[in-house]
Amino acid sequence: MAVNLYSGAKALTTAVKDINRLREIVAVLARHGFGELVNRLGLTETLGVKNLVATTDADDTPLTTAQQIRMAIEELGPTFVKLGQILSTRPDLVPPAVIEELSRLQDNVPEMPFEDVESVLVAELGGSISDHFAHFEPKPLACASIAQVHRAVLAHEGAEVVVKVQRPRIARRIDSDLNILHVLARLIEARAPDLALMDPVGIVNEFDKAIRKELDFTGERRNIGRFQMNFESFDGLRVPRVYDKVSTTRVLVMEFIRGVKITLAPEKLDIDPYDVAPRMLRALFKMVFQDGVFHGDLHPGNILILDDGTIVLIDFGLVGRLTPKQREHILDILIGLSRQDYELVSRVMFELGVKVPGVVYDYDAFEADVVEVMEKHLAGRTLSEIDVGAYFSDLVAGAIRHQIKMPPTYTMVFKALMTIEGIGKSLAPEVNLVEEAQPFVREMLAERYSPKRLMKEGIDGLDSLSRFLRLFPHQAGELLRDLNEGRTTVRLNPMGMDEALEAYRTQSRRRNRVLMFSACMLSGAVALNAPSPTLLGLPVPAWLLFGLGGFIGLGVLAAMFRK
Questions:
Q1: Which is catalytic among the residues 92, 297, 315, 332?
Q2: Is 133 helix (H, G, I), strand (E, B) or coil?
Q3: What is the C-alpha to C-alpha distance for residues 120 and 4, in angstroms, rounded to an integer?
Q4: pTM confidence score
Q5: DSSP state, 245?
Q6: Do the beta carbons of residue 69 and residue 102 sit within 8 Å?
Q7: Which residues pair with 237 in a beta bridge?
Q8: CA distances from 130 to 113, 136, 150, 155 (A)
Q9: What is the DSSP letter of 244?
Q10: What is the DSSP letter of 262?
């Protein structure tokens, strides 16, 4: 087992690129009250780190575990702060008290010296700063763990911009920390079974991919371009312009936005909150249901309002993507919410959740929990009275109790919905998330049951059946050879075999007839637009296909009644 390699200092030195950084991390964890965990992982003796007492606040009051986690993460630096910020969006993995503390995490990093900023700009853009910027403000607007932001004026265009400059050597530090996180995750999974349920290896793998993307500003530039295109015709919302000629993998130059946070807009600007709040909700639903690409960090600081009420979204480092199937799942959950369809919500939540191998799931018990959650939030309430954020949070918590984990994409969507609903209700209490979603729900339902889509699904089904029938003889031959040569054994219970085979043949015939009926009816619907002679107002091919489909359908019904 790989963990056995880490049982001694020599093995750890081989596995970890920076053993001194690992000692530092272990010392911080121990100092903040996690010495027992360090001992369980076998690191205290191996590294020679002494266990320290738990940290207290200025009044010597013992801190909660959630506070200790936050303080340890803040002391551990940029990589761990980013990990904590991502974990704060995972209610399926992290308890509410810890999420509340992690949500307070700030990139509490010192200001980067201007000499470092200048060296990065010169290395990335060439020449001197004055070659590219008529003015560059040395004092940063904001300092983050990966980059620092400055105001400037472009030399050639004269435009006011913000310049995001990556910290020098940050990539090397993050690479070292990621290496250590991978080692710690494997140790936790092997030696702390209670924490292994959180899937530490999977979390670190996902985090590794996410933070490496943030180190390359090209990805953020692509995200901005995608959102600009998606919202080009959306009134009242826009995305900052990027200046590509002076942007690189470590430098990102965007237009400067003179706006205020959305939560401060009503008191600082003369705007109607009942105009802004619904527009932001519609923008989110457009991202989720129409575009399949959504902003993954929609806190108030990333949603600015201009004097004329225009919404401007900023900071596109974290973006989520949804497959058509995932959009269908979220649509069904909203439909179930609006119709109070307990069975639909239970089925969808169970289907989209990640199951733990080897666990036997009790669907009836799971459904009962979902019903309880829905009764709690929906019974006796109108749509405007439903707290959608709390509803989603309780659904996810219920799934966790049954050892069902939510894929990260869904938790990001739920977090975005909860955040925007909270902002919307703080601005305009009467605005209702479910009602604002209705136009998008109707559009997706119309597309789901359109003749074109039904035809495609019917053809796909027939294609799958055809492919199965083509492969079946070959696969059956291989199975027979395996049986003949003793590589496969089969144990049969012959009681009722004849009846079972006859039932299977009957079901197969009926299934084939249903597929043929569906194909005829869908083809008939498509043929309605065919340029051909008509009979009683319908094209002749459509009459033929509908007639054949009706004949087959009557046969299916007759067979069912005979049974």
A1: 297
A2: strand
A3: 42
A4: 0.73
A5: G
A6: yes
A7: 311
A8: 18, 8, 15, 7
A9: G
A10: T
* Contacts with 157 (C-beta within 8 Å, 6 or more apart), sequence order: 243
No. of helices (H) and no. of strands (E), the chain: 24, 15
Written as one letter, the residue type at 353 is G
- Res 1: pLDDT: 44
Measure the CA–CA gap between 252 and 215, rounded to whole angstroms.
Answer: 11
Query: Which tokens sit at 249?
Result: 């993998």
Q: 297 an active-site residue?
A: yes
Task: Determine phi and psi for 256, rounding to 5 degrees.
Answer: -80, 130
CA gap 548, 544 in Å, rounded: 6
What is residue 298's three-state secondary structure? coil
Distance CA 331, CA 451 (A): 20
Considering only CA atoms, which of 56, 134, 63, 92 is closest in space to residue 401? 92
Mean pLDDT in consecutive groups of 10 residues from the start of the chain, 563 residues: 52 73 88 86 70 53 87 89 83 80 76 93 94 95 89 94 94 91 89 78 88 90 95 94 95 95 89 92 93 90 93 91 91 86 90 83 91 87 76 83 84 86 87 82 75 65 64 68 66 54 62 69 66 67 72 67 56
Distances (CA, A) of 246 to 170, 314, 525: 21, 19, 54
Instruction: Report H helices in 199-261.
Output: 200-214, 217-230
Query: Nearest CA to 416 among 260, 273, 300, 274?
Result: 300
Please give the pLDDT value at position 514. Answer: 66
Q: What are the beta bridge partners of residue 263?
A: none
Tokens 């299977």, residue?
504
Report CA-CA distances (Å) from 152 to 116, 259, 277, 326, 413. 17, 17, 32, 41, 35
C-alpha span between 248 and 322 (Å, rounded):
28
> What are the structure tokens assigned to 68, written together?
């200790």
Contacts of 394 (CB under 8 A, 6+ apart): 373, 376, 377
Percent helix, strand and coil across the chain, each to the nearest 5? 65, 10, 30
Question: What is the CB-side half-sphere exposure of residue 279 using CA atoms within 13 A?
Answer: 20
Q: How many other C-beta atoms lie within 10 A of the C-beta of residue 369?
A: 18
Radius of gyration of the chain (CA): 30
CA 225, 229, 233, 235 torsion-angle sign: negative
Beta-ladder partners of 294: 320
Select from 156, 177, 441 the least CA-distant residue to 286.
441
Strand 251-255 versus strand 293-295 pairing type: unpaired
Query: How would DSSP label each residue in 332-351?
Result: HHHHHHHHT-HHHHHHHHHH
User: For residue 110, how many other CB atoms are within 10 A of its CB?
Assistant: 6
